[in-house]
Every structure is written in structure tokens, then in C-alpha cells.
Write the C-alpha cells for this entry.
Amino acid sequence: MTPEGTRPAAILVDGERIEALVPLDEVRGNTQIHDFGETAILPGLVDSHVHINEPGRAEWEGFETATRAAAAGGYTMLVDMPLNCLPGTSTVAALEAKREAARGKCRVDWAAWGGVVSDNQSDIESLAGAGVRGFKCFLVDPGIDGFTMVTERELREALPHIARTGLPLLVHAELAGPIEAATAKLGGADWKSYATYLQSRPDDAELSAIRLLLSLCREYRFRLHIVHLATHRALDELRAARAGGLSASVETCPHYLHLAAETIADGATLSKCAPPVRSRHNREQLWDGLAEGVIDLVATDHSPCLPSMKQLESGSFKTAWGGIASLSMALPVMWTEASQRGFGLADITRWMCEGPARLARCESHKGRIAAGYDADFVVFDSDAEFMATAERLYHRHAVSPYLGEKLRGVVKATYLRGQVVFSDGTFPGEPIGREYRA
Ligand SMILES: [Zn+2]
């Protein structure tokens, strides 16, 4: 899969980089050849939205297990969110602690987003200088110790600093007001029912947050990125804002493109995330948004927890942890859905390689198979099918809403900077992943 489309070719690799793409009959001389036959070779996937949780919550996940799952899923670069780890990545000291925690453990490359929290406005520019790829904040309580939301006033204090760095601000776009109002109306509703949870987090919570962000973007002229868009109802306003020249990019996640509220059973808290998975109709509108380009990219929001936190016994959508871990399954989940709708591997590459690489500002080295780029590849058998089983997850805890599903597309091997890091269920060699610091 080249930037110009699919074609038979040989990828010449010299050390860590791609030297050239040439016709097959031009490979000669003293060259070690790996022949993948008819199998597709995609650029290594880039995931711009991952919660690795280390340091501080390594019992939930960690660099070793997250990057192992990533390699098995065809990812060669992860960008870690600043929360769920302790300390949250909202100071330079916390970033250094994360670097220390990552050392020697990574199977793929990684980088960090910095946090914008209620009281760290004066740390923003030093975090940028220390190497974060951009920033992340919450407009609603993230529901975890160690990371605070920002009010509009606090965000306004941060935005001039963010604009000066030129880095993107990624925002969890839900406002508390509509959530509290909707929850108050629920009374004694049954929290084992998915419908109750869905009603508690209405589309309006996302819509009102996105409206606020677009108006702040007009005022402060920073690079805005909406993470995990779950409602299609914001697409018209996002389209109009972008047409008007605002720098506002949008992501959605495999679970919003695969699951649907109508089929989430009572007590099936493995599918709980925030914002919530909405209706089947909504899901199809998100696919249209991707096709059109209003949604730029697909990131996993890989967000693992201890199995007990999913509250599978009580089945309560009120108290269960909201988060879906999907690094090892995201590509097959996406391909299963995309291929049914007539999309091709070029679309997958745009959404899961090029788009996230551009957001994380590593697009000069990652996300493309072209001369000069890192030799990061996925050998992907796009016709093969498999059953999602616990043994194929590879993240710390085998917790996933996808278990038992038949999925299309098998990751046969993953190469990171010229070296094989995953091959048919094994992870050869030492962990060579490192922080991306270009
Ligand atoms: Zn997240």
C-alpha cells in the first residue's frame, strides 16, 4: 500500500529506513529477500489515543503489555494519553517518570501527550519544550484520581499557552450539564440496562461541548482535535467550521463503528465507554463522516482496567469502568466493517496510519510506505478470517467485548524500523521500541 495506491513492488530496506520501492524484477545483488506473496503490506499503524497506564497503574496495563498487543495488532507507534498513569503527564517531572517507566520495555515506538488540568497552565510551554506531541484535556470529570477536568475559565487560561506552542489540543468533548440533567430524570431506572446508560450520556453533552470548543478555537486560534466522536449529530457543525478555515480535526474509534446500542445486552459492561456507543443509525452516519473526510482518523482509545472493575457480576453500567481495550483487534474489527461497506485498504491506511501520524506530528517518518520513511510494516492477510480469543489479545488482562467474534483480516507479521517485532503469534528479539523525538 503506497501513497499512490496498491501495486506489486519490492520495498528495499536499509537499516531502519525504507530506501526505495522498486519493481520486483529490479531486486538483485546481495539482498536478503522476504517474500510475502500476495499478502498486503500496509504501513505500520499509528495509534494516537492509547492509555498505557504506566507508571502508577501498571497492574491495569503497562508498556510491556500494551506495546506487545500493539505489535500483534499491526501498530508500530502509540501516543500515550496523559491520564490513568500516576502521576498524570501534566508536568515535565511526570513526563520524565514516564520515560523512565518505558525504558527497555517497548515492542513498538511511542510518544506522549501532555495533560492540561485545572492548575498546570504554567507547565504547558515547558512540556512542549520537553517533547510532548500535543495536549489533552477533559471538559467533564474523567472519573479517575490523578487527573482533573478543566472548566471553561481554566481552559481559557491555558489556551494562549497552547496556541503559542503550535501543538494540537485533544479534547474529551462532553459537558457535565446535559449529563447531570439526563441522569436526574432517570430516577430508579435499571442500571443493568444499556439503555439507561445511553440515556445518561445524551448526544447533547457532546454537541454542546463541541460548540464551545469551536467558538474557543475561533477566538484563540489553536489546533483543536476532538477525540472519540460518538455522535453523528456534530458532523454538520464540524464540517462547517472546517470549511470556514478552523483547524479542527476529528477522530472516532473502532467500537463506535462496530458495536451498536441495540445489540448491547443487559449487564454487558464490556461495551461501556464514554461517550457511549450509540444507535445503529448513528453508527452508519459515522461511517459516512469517515467516507466524506469530516472524521479524519480512527484511534483505539485502548483503555484497559482490572477485570474486576468491569463489574461483570453486578452488570451495573453505573459503576463499571468505562473503557475498551482493543490494540490487538482494532485493525481486524475495522477491516471486517470497512470491507463490508465497500471501503478498501487505502481507506484503512488513511484513517489508521496517515491521519494519526499527522495528528502526532510524526508524518515525516511514520504512516507511509515511501522512500526515507521508517521501515514499519504490517503484513496483513486481508482475506483470512479468525475467531477473537483471549490468547490473541496480548494486553495485560483478557477483557474485551470482541471475544467470540469472527473477524476478517489477520496480522501475519509486524516490522518496526526494519526488524520483525511480531510474527505468527511470537514476539522475536528484544524490545527495540523507543520514544519518537523528531
Ligand atoms: Zn481515552
Notes: The chain has a mean pLDDT of 97. DSSP finds twelve helices and 15 strands in the chain.
